[in-house]
Structures
1.
Amino acid sequence: MLPTTLRCPAVGRSMFAGVAFSLASSMLPMAAQTPSDSGNAARISQVSSARQTPTVLAIRRAAPAVVNIHGQKTVRATAAGMAGATGPDSFRQVNGMGTGVVIDPRGYVITNFHVVEDVDDILVTLDNGQTTSAKLIASRIRNDLALIKVDVDRPLPTIPRGTSSDLMVGESVIAIGNAFGYVHTSTQGIVSALHRDVPVNEAQEYHDLIQISAGINPGNSGGPLLNIDGDMIGVNVAVRVGAQQIAFAIPMDQVVEIVTEMIDEHNEKRLVTGLRTNGGPRDGDGVTVANVSASSPAARDGLMPGDRVVRVGSQPVDDRLDFALAMLNATPGDSLELAIEREGRQMDLAMRTEQVSGAVAGGVEELAWSLIGIQARPVADSTIRRLNTRMRTKYRGGLYIANVRPGSPADQQGISTGDVLLGIHGWQTSNMADLAGILEHPDMQRGPKAKFYIVRREQTLFGHLQIANQADNAARR
């Protein structure tokens, strides 16, 4: 049984927890921050090629996209075991730091959630020494990942993204981070093991981590793990306290998948597009339209399942993360210029986004309860993938049935809590926006019997719902 002595080396779980609080001041001194010296370029050109090893070239390639995150948070003094605490309501401001990686030139940065958790004012120091503010855009606490937006007026260098799918035990890796405040500290080691599950405490456990021997210290959290080519293959997250050369990183493919889901969820709260896409985690995997919701802007403006999106505005799209990032700057009412490939031909389309309102903003829950008799929530992509693996199917999403109203159409057709609703009347129900589009579609308002599909105990079932007429239902209320 692994003791719960793991500490995450950054703001939330090492600067603000554990041994960091043995200092009476609870303040970690910041090392002098020196911006990268562009004047080195001329001298580098004169260095012998023997000294410019693959490690040197890898760090040089990736380092400009590594940023240093610092700020303050308020902690309860007694809970932290601080010297000088006077009672249960004693609070103190403490400094902390971590690392981030620029993934989009507009200033979007990936880091660990615990680096920015409860930080009052997130400050970011860029590769040129400039310090600016940032705001939290999206986060996933259980996966300890966050996306922040840095306030910049120039394009930032971005990290070269690699894949964690082909990592080999024993291959060389490099970590870059804000170790103890010494910015852009680089350490080297090897991949010690793959697919490690690591418990932090009784409430949290990391899954499928990369174990490495590179030195990871407080402040490294959120920084990149590189392969010898300088491609980012993971996010450094934790060390084993008391051990030597045992550290862990979240695999890059997992990071890309989770961050993409985070951004999609953030966008769905702001925008209605009606698009659902497929694509892999690596550059070049592409983005294909998997589903177009009924009555959606995507359907209205001519997008079709199977279309491959290659550009949004002026931004090339090579994978789903690119597409999600491209949508971040869109506002309701914007007309997005999309370049797509369809049946071997490239064509341009304009899709006008809409503001989340009405059923999608929350009324869809009431509508689904009154017209069908269900309470539903989106199923995680990871759950759908597990179903597809076990059932050898290709479902793209679904809605988990959390409750069924007695006597409702759903109840009459035998739909039960725990079922996963896959589609109604030929349209997929991958998310709540899909369900809203279906329930508001003119065909549905005429009250036909609509065929539905569900998954129950890894079996696909179907039936026919007599959906209540909205006007009649409103009159009854």
2.
Amino acid sequence: MQQVLIKDAQIVNEGKVFTGDVLIIDGIIREIAENISAKSPDVNIFHAEGKHLLPGIIDDQVHFREPGLTHKATIATESAAAVAGGITSFIEMPNTNPQATTIEKLEEKFAIASKTSHANYSFMFGGTNDNLDEILKVDKKKVAGLKLFLGSSTGNMLVDDEEVLEKIFSATDLLISAHCEDENTIRKNMEIYTERYGEDIPINLHPIIRSEEACYISSSKAVALAKKTGARLHVFHLSTGKETELFDNTIPLKDKKITAEVCIHHLWFSDEDYDEKGTLIKWNPAVKTETDRKQLFQALLDDRLDVIATDHAPHTLEEKDNVYTKAPSGGPLVQHALPAMLEFYHEGAISLEKIVEKMCHNPAILFEVEKRGYIREGYKADLILVDLNNPWTVQKDNILYKCGWSPFEGTTFKSRVTHTFVNGNLVYKNFKVYEGLHGERLTFDR
């Protein structure tokens, strides 16, 4: 019997901050109380005075690049970076090589993760214009959901046949997550600027090419289709203030049929940063204006936006160091997402309770993740200890991504993750990821 006792932590959970102890037995939270005495001489005690204890973060959108793109990242390397950032569970996207668009290929990814992941894991099944039969085979209790690329896809994963799209929305009871950008609008914009600049388009035109209009056209169509068919829709990575108008904050999250997320980079960066960061902050959807950034933050606070995620999508520096048309979109974020959000806390822009709600509780509610996302008796002991007053600077020697770089390089964060527990096991402490794989396949209470 393995016992862990966390003493004198400032526990942040379910809208409250309070001092307490947490007892973990065999990976399960067994007791939460003001003062718990060790019940065995073998208990491993962590003295957490001065630190805050949070539920482990559930990141609902990552690209860990395995299989097929492992020169950029692997499930092993990126899950290690994730636990260093307090992310104890992740949901990975289907656009690997081969793509997870059949049950066989999906299960191959689960098999890799079972042997290599430091964090808990699930994977999205990928929809295409011609794999509805495979979609209908997916077990909703064992798979996070269905991912549809309504723009910016790789391979054959762009679902651009409106008849097929309606059939998918009507036929599946899986949670549908969508990347929404209108390809026709983007193509027209690209033609204009390619004619003017050739391949070397200035990077600050990225949010003009992948414009507010492109995002809104696609998001509004997806929302309208979900309303028409009754499908359960989750719109990934909103990037514009205008899109936030499509979402509701008048009902509890558990009752919402249509939800949305915002990602760290759209909360942190704006188009003012392209001159300094260049293609390092080239994402799809694009980082847009300071006004958009502020409107997204407001929609997060007022609950039109339900979840904070990373869309972690690493590329090598060599790949990024290209002219606009050849530089891929995406960047690494899992290690630095929580420290970035805690900077907003220090600025007085958001509370600790709200950060936990959006990064831990709400992903668990939205995806119906079984017994995770909260500090509750009987739940899995996915926990993180955070020191809010322990500054550190992001630099090459403490970046854990396989790609070896971060858009936050040179940034000094006031807060750091000091300890991460996955299923009751200490997997990370002060820039060291411990050997041993403790991640489990996520299950869903549906």
3.
Amino acid sequence: MAKRKISPWIKAALDWGPLVVFFIAFNRLKDGTYHIAGTDYSGFVVATALFIPMIAASTLVLWRLTGKLSAMQVATLVLVLIFGGLSVWLNDPTFFKMKPTIIYLLFAGILGAGLVRGKAWLQLVMEEALPMQHEGWMILTKRFVGLFLALAVANEIVWRTMSDTVWVDFKTFGLPIILVGFIMAQTKLFERYGIEKPGEDPAE
């Protein structure tokens, strides 16, 4: 399937829509217990059950619209299906709370394995949007490995020591803010190692 561009607003809605739905559902259902098919479920588990088909549908739509999915999107979907499914099946939110930890450790491990081989695999998923010299990609990849390891530790601390409400707020708002802040903090790196796109006028 050929790659196609879509509106940034549509992409943002597909990327963040399921998480917003989970956040709203959790806050509406968190104080209740829901009897479904002979079993009592917490609001957290019910919100998780809503989140799973939402992210599966949004990922499918994104693939149909763009003709591609990044390795990060595929890995996230698979882990949501596995750990979210376990939380619903076993009626235990612990598995879903562990999902971000597993995702960040997985990403850190993959990027770290590339660094050992002298390769910046982050470049494969970001080069089109951010042309940069190889040395710059190596530095950025090392920083992302450190970030992902730190986020994995942070997620473990939050879900193990704080309330469900705090963890949901951290997942919905804290993690995205940290990621955006981290990328913005790399401005000097982008300026130093950035490469002009073909046909781009440096005077513009």
4.
Amino acid sequence: MLEWITNTIQIWNYWGIALLMFLENLFPPIPSELIMPLAGFTASPYQPGGAKLNVFGVFFAGLLGSVVGALIWYYPGKFFSERRLKTLADKYGKWIAISSKDISKATRWFNSQGRKAVLIGRLVPGIRTVISVPAGISNMPLLPFIFYTTLGSAAWVGLLTYSGYVLGSQYELVDNYLAPVSKIVLGILVLAFVGWVLKRRRKRTRS
């Protein structure tokens, strides 16, 4: 996969980066943790031969692909019921590593956090791809969805791009550094969700 990602960026430059990040949103097994650091490395002046791409161009190309890819998941949620999407995920999701459990997890998180779940969810591996689905199911307006998606994606893409730019040829280490951080963030989100559930139960008990 690394060779394919490298060749795509070398051949198509910014359009290749946008395409890869678009596909990463559709097919989670394609890791943004490898795409954007590698793209950032191509903009690093420390690589042999100097920078081949502009770091800002790399960032905006990755952001464009990420936002457009998120829209692809938003519209199925808008036009299909949650039950129907779960059925489809269990039947065909194995091809893109998405299951009904993933949709349920993203939906619970969205219901507990509201619109800001789209922003935060874009920063969490395992949720960032499918957080668009409950946003569509809940009929979240398109403009706020794009706004929060863009903010969250910009933070994620910017972090990965800068990491590859700074680490240079060691860009593959980005995934090693992000893995524990991602687990911590996910743990915080789980605790926040549990707190929300307990708070709602207390309200019901009082009423």
